[in-house]
Design brief:
The chain is built from 8 helices and 17 strands. By secondary structure, it is of the alpha+beta class. It is globular. It starts with a strand and ends with a strand.
């Protein structure tokens, strides 16, 4: 199930959470992305859904969201068949393994799938490259980062996953790789993958490094039925990975473990959550987790590519001939001081450019005049605005376009 939740005027994003409830009352949640202003899609994938009447709900984050009409699609995928996977029959993760294999997120081995075998680091590198949108990299210089890999295939895999800007979601090639070396010059291809390091790889693949690093110093919690619960073993999560675990829990990529305790005089039990960061991940575990990540990756809406021009007005020549974008864009975005708004006027006539906040109130009018056809730019000083999301609304005689600006 996939929905689009674009918020006010289709530009602000919304604090929504897609929830599917099966006939037995079990809930499957999309979570609310940390970049909800830019990531407007929500999706939930359920392996081997039970028969019966399902309920679909869209809730706000702790009851808070913007009113809007939400559209969505329901897709049913049926695997036509599998080979060399006889050892998964009857396994609790059988349906997820089939889903992951069918979507090319994971693969079997020469002697079956081996669902209960531990996932190795070289296998993780392979599956990240195949299914998580990772750039292939092999340095032209012939330089090698690791001394403990030797085959051409392993060299390609390891160089790709540790390279700066490895994730396709990292549009500007600024983020670290999606896997970390175990030591300088050492990859440890046969080493095992624990839950904390897998959280890092998946969140990094989704392009959320900045958000994860910002959370490293924050308490590690998990949301359960609108209740915020501290993770009891948060101290066992490496400090540099705490933000990644936080986002993995929030997006329902990796589950927490829950238990109840009740003292002799307590009227209600207390719910506890643990993450078990050092627990090794099995191949079946990975198939379950990566099938959740697959829907999140497909759901994330990339921000529009920014475009700008050196000229203030680009004349009446056609946009295609001049290479001028007809989109309304702001760059830089997010902005801490000034940003440049670029917009296109199809035909000479009256033009208005206005700034709105997320409550729909007009903050400022930037242009109210007749302008020539072509591309135009203006500088906007955002220093007087409070931090948050704002909308540029450009109205011409033929159309109305909007774009959002995040003020930091």
């Amino acid at each position: 199930m996939k929905i689009s939740s674009t918020g006010l005027l289709g530009e602000t994003g919304n604090l929504t959470n897609l929830i599917l409830v099966d006939p037995n009352g079990v809930q499957y949640r999309s979570g609310t992305p940390v970049t909800f202003t830019l990531s407007t899609d929500r999706s939930v994938a359920v392996a081997s859904p039970v028969a019966g009447t399902w309920t679909l709900k869209v809730d706000g984050l702790q009851g808070v969201d913007l009113p809007e009409t939400i559209n969505g699609n329901i897709t049913v995928l049926t695997a036509a068949g599998t080979t060399n996977l006889n050892d998964i029959v009857g396994h609790p993760a059988e349906a997820s393994i089939k889903m992951a294999v069918a979507n090319r997120l994971v693969d079997g081995l020469s002697n079956g799938f081996r669902p209960d075998a531990p996932l190795t680091r070289i296998q993780l590198a392979d599956y990240l490259l195949v299914g998580q949108g990772i750039r292939q990299l092999l340095p032209f210089s012939g330089a090698r980062s690791f001394t403990d890999v030797s085959t051409p295939a392993e060299i390609l895999l390891t160089e790709s996953v540790v390279a700066k800007g490895a994730a396709l979601r990292d549009r500007f090639n600024r983020a670290s790789g999606v896997m970390l070396p175990t030591a300088t010059g050492t990859f440890s291809p046969s080493g095992l993958v624990n839950r904390a390091s897998l959280a890092y790889s998946l969140v990094q693949s989704l392009g959320f490094q900045e958000q994860a690093l910002a959370r490293n110093s924050q308490p590690l919690t998990v949301q359960v039925s609108g209740q915020t619960i501290p993770v009891d073993d948060a101290a066992n999560v490496p400090a540099a990975l705490r933000g990644y675990v936080s986002i993995a829990l929030e997006l329902n990529l990796i589950n927490a473990y829950y238990s109840l305790s009740q003292g002799p005089y307590d009227q209600q039990p207390t719910l506890h959550a643990t993450f078990k960061p050092a627990q090794n991940v099995s191949r079946a575990d990975f198939a379950v987790i990566v099938s959740r990540t697959f829907s999140q990756y497909e759901a994330q809406t990339q921000p529009t590519a920014q475009a700008s021009s050196n000229a203030t007005a680009l004349g009446t020549a056609s946009a295609s001939a001049m290479g001028v974008s007809k989109e309304t864009v702001a760059y830089p975005n997010p902005a801490a001081s000034t940003t440049t708004l670029s917009y296109y006027v199809a035909q000479e006539g009256p033009v208005s450019v206005e700034v709105y906040n997320t409550l729909g109130r007009k903050v400022q009018t930037l242009v109210s005049a007749s302008e020539a056809a072509g591309g135009h730019q203006l500088q906007f000083d955002a220093r007087s605005l409070a931090r948050g999301t704002y909308l540029f609304r450009v109205k011409t005689g033929q159309s109305v376009s909007t774009t959002r600006l995040l003020v930091q």
